[in-house]
Protein 1
Amino acid sequence: MEYKRAPITEAILELKWRDPIDFDLAQRAAKKLSRHYYPGEEEQAQVTPNIIYETGQDPRASVNVLWKGIKRSSADQAESARVSTASLSIMRLAPYTGWEMFVSRAKRDWEAVLPTLGRRPIERIGLRYINRIDIPEQDGQVQFSRYLNPRVAFPTTEWGEPGAYFVQLTFPRAARGLALIINTGTVVSPILHYQSVLLDIDVVAEKLDLIRDERIWELATAMRGEKNRVFESCITDAAREMFNA
Amino acid sequence: MSAIQAVAAMRTMPGANGQSARAMPQDSISEFHGSMPGTSADATSAVRTTMEERLFQSSANFKILTSMVAMHLPVEWREKMFQQIDTLLDAEQWESDDAPPTVFSARTFLRLILALNSSVRPGLGASHDGNLIAAWTKGKNRLTVECLGGDRLKWSVVREAPDRESVDRIVGATGLGRFVSQLAPYRPEIWFTSGEQ
């Protein structure tokens, strides 16, 4: 279902290769991503500080930097792609412009890096949609269960609904061999006099050995179908109404 | 961001902000209220010292923060605000001693925009110490709001007096939560409901 004001704050598709690649190769592949679409570029590293303190001696400090990948971003920062030593990730921030555009971009970027990387098996595909549902307060309160189906069951109703909660649900063997992870809970709202709930849906296909492009995109599309099914099952009609207001 | 925080951000795998799909989402949900957006970029921020790079990062932070509330903004607002911020942060025009707008100020600015629910986009400026300034002008009437971190605002109103021969000037400092009610006596609809500036 498409909404006028979809609550998606970030969509991420990650294709993880079976065997990690060198940073140099990731860097060369990232250079093949179009500068027209992604003028921004930043190298990303894992930085590990080491501080050694021995009695009677001055502390000694050093920093290890392990280069991990290159992120390329559109001028408005809404679209980005990351080639790392482990994977290719395609990201889209709000406003979300639909699956067709998202997956087309993923295919385009995949085809751009493929000649440099060479065809290599994909071991894992992750499709993650982070939604934030912003709900206006009424008398300073929000009844979350009016908008969301996943909820916290508490032994007594004496205290009403919780003002804040956080739940992680993992389904290692969800439908069609996919794993599903849902994180949901209250977050500080970016809007005054609103309260917000995070609904973070992550669909994962693991232990893959995919080489053929069409199989990758077929699976990604099927995962998107599952993600939509999960999302729709998590929200109520009141939420749908709000997204279309 | 400290080096230790950088490790925490980078040990997870991707996501526009460097979070793993499996990571607990407290990191990602702090996009708007907690850590700097684009934390994955921060590992390299220590070497980003030129003013041009700082301005770029300030602009990128603003755009990422805006994306967090983009579903509540008209599409054309987002595009035009980005043009405004790019113009404001043009390295060739920027005074080299001034600090680029901080992410904390940008966050307050966006919360202000959403709270006011104005149909008129403000003009944008920046203070020398890294705060965004929003301004609405209608004839002699002017509302200027400096957005500090943590929802704090400094504001000034120039309002034509009823005799139309003089103007009243009022300044204030308040939190965002009380700003709308403090502004009410000055009939702010003159700034917020009359189409594009």
Note: The two ends of chain B are 38 Å apart (CA to CA).
Protein 2
Amino acid sequence: MTLSTRNRDRLFAVLAPVIGFVAAIIILLVIVVLVGESPARAINAIVRITTSNPSRLASVLSQAIPLYIAGIAVAFAFQAGVFNIGAEGQYFFGGLIGALAGIYLRLPAFLHVPVVVIASMIGGAAWAAIPAVLKVKRGVHEVITTIMFNSIAIYLINYLVNRPLSGLGEGASLEPRTHEIAETALFGKLNGFFQALGWGIGDHVYLDYSLIVALVMGVLVWLVLYKLRIGFEVRAVGEAIDVARYSGMRVSRVQITAFLASGALAGLIGLQEIFAIRGFYTYNIATGLGFDGIAIALIGRNNPLGIIFAAILFSFLRQAGYGLQLYTSVPNSVTYVISGLMIIIIVVSDELMTRYARNLRRKELAS
Amino acid sequence: MDEITKVFPGVVANDEVSMDLEAGEIHALVGENGAGKTTLMKILYGLYKPDGGRIFIDDQPVEITGAKDAIAKGVGMVHQHFMLVPVFNVLDNVILGAERDVAPDRAGDQQKRLLDRIADRLYLNKNAPRQRITEIMERNRIDIDLDRRVGELPVGIQQRVEILKILYRGAKVLVFDEPTAVLSPQEIESLFESFRRLTDQGKGVIFISHKLDEVLQIADRITVIRRGRVIETMPRKGATKSRIAELMVGKPVILDVDNPDPELGEPILEVESLSAVDSRGYDVLNGVDLTVRAGEIVGIAGVEGNGQSELVYQVTEDHHPTGGDIRLRGESIVGWDVRRRREAGIAHIPEDRHRQGLLMSFSLADNLCLGRHHRPPFVGSLGFRNTQEIHGFAREAIEAYDVRTPDETTEAHALSGGNQQKVIIAREMSGDPALLVASQPTRGVDIGATEFIYKQIVNAKTDGRAVLLVSADLDEVMALADRILVMYEGRVVYETNRREATKEKIGYYMTGEAEHDTVDA
């Protein structure tokens, strides 16, 4: 055998997403033909909107930031075997708490920005706390509670921004929203930094502080999961809860920790939209990011490195959809079909390859 | 089966294996784990496609494409883990998947109205199947209430439901994969009776087993396979236990362990009138008393499900007793969590290593530090894991406990059962425990590894540790334990020691005959 076992395992790990992506693109082109559009035009449209110039490329990256945070948030809970389907609600609520800290606190910028980040995390963790405690203490399944908490969050926030926290009248829009966030808490852009490095992106693209937050959180999650004792316990609980219990791990504590950490991370999903793009909190904050996080975590194998790839892939597809809508007669919704198919293909081929690699390994040892 | 070859990538699981089964014969298939018995049987049952060789049934070459096809061609299998629906009654279990095999009378079909015919097809008429099953039971002298729910039946009876299932489907060849593993000596006896009745009717039985005593008792011929090859097929006459064991492993094994008399120390574990209920609220322990001293092995014998597992969990995990006390070195440990118990010196070899013992997709290094992974030297400053220490320790343990693996980064699932068990033993012993609780320590482990594990358990004793051994394998308990306690229905019903113990006596108490005088079979 020419490949070492380890390298072969790595190759397999990379292969599944590549197969999924290629298959998804092929299926996309088949659909394009069925719709009666020319595949060449479709590819052209996709390329044009995603990679034709540095700004387009940077936009893909920009959109990947909240998706990445959503991915690692969900992944952290998954690693402990906890299905946090409630990233969506935790993100709404965490974002609101962060925004409130941005609106009502008076701090210098170098403090205010970290404070709103931490406030968002606290908000997200708080929203995850009740399902977490219910799961561990009462055995209520977290999928049920977190889904219900998503709805509670939506309507609670609807009420709050319409009534007690309403800042209606500020600005020109009539949407239900809060007051403006203080200047000191707003997220600046890093575009100048990238331009100085020679990357010719336009000023309109949002590569803001949330990119730094995402990267820092990615590194932290990786460190915690793979280098710290608590991360080992998290992964052990996720792998086999009976083994974890047998070896003396405090399983409930580990699960609560992972659940809260997941919620805290989810609280950060809205940073870019709230603090960089809008400057206030609104009921019309982007929906679905928390759910995208589930798919992204899955494709990224719950690994903070793999999730970088998965988030960019998702962002790419999203942009590709706009491109198709804009330049061809293919409807945007096709890309949602494609991302769904892609997830299935990746998950299935990943599973097949893991099994194949596992069998190979076993055979090697047996012979 | 003629010159069957099955190659998996990198390993030849069956290398031109030939074996034959005559009508009315019991043919035992023995070999270590991984020798290729299961592969061969899976080929016969149509679950694997052979890469070479042919299968003949009644001298006709056949190709078996799957389980359903195997059954149609007269091959049936009783799996080690029963394939029964616990909430169905016996009748439903037997006909499940073959509901229409015994057709109801369709003679008058033409005259019936369309609606009636449709109703006939939709409605499952169980009268004809019931009648046929009753006939089969009479012929085989099996007596089971067809309306009982299978989940309520004892294991031995469930096994008979499995046999019934196969007979109902008209099997000529019956394959039993380690059927005695879960049975008491008396149940084994009656299983063997069933074997004889089957062969009297001209059916063939393939009997896969680890237990050589049983093989010698029942088989007409014995085939030994090792490393995918048939080593020898011999008639029972003239076959001896040591000869078969020798053929199985390729070298003579001494399963009579060198087991010195205990040098008793202070009491380590004291269990006092311990009672407990299971999750459904049924009594599983009814006032158990026992003491394990330093330097002795106390063995618990008993048919599985008589409270042994619960006793183990009461000692090792934080199960709450409903009454009584558990003391370690005189101090009550009731209410302590697992970590505290482990730190106080309780080590545990779990009965189900896949479910409890190992993180299968984690490295051996990670697995070897489990239980002590949370404290120095495995954890350094700021809660960071000390990878160097973990790997260094793992390499030493792998060396010391003769774990066959390329290195410590190999994932646990890649190892054979015996080596996985060695990893667990290495981990549990290296924590220098005062009390070792070993539950089914050699289940599913080959002879070579079994011998090694026996030595480790005896070593634990001679090192002055207290050992509580729970095993369904009576030979194992009798070979290792200094004192033997028999559990039945949540109580210790009999106590003896190694010198005075006899199988008959222990078996008598294991099945509760001492209590009821009649056996429910």
Note: Chain A touches chain B through 28 residues (CB under 8 Å).
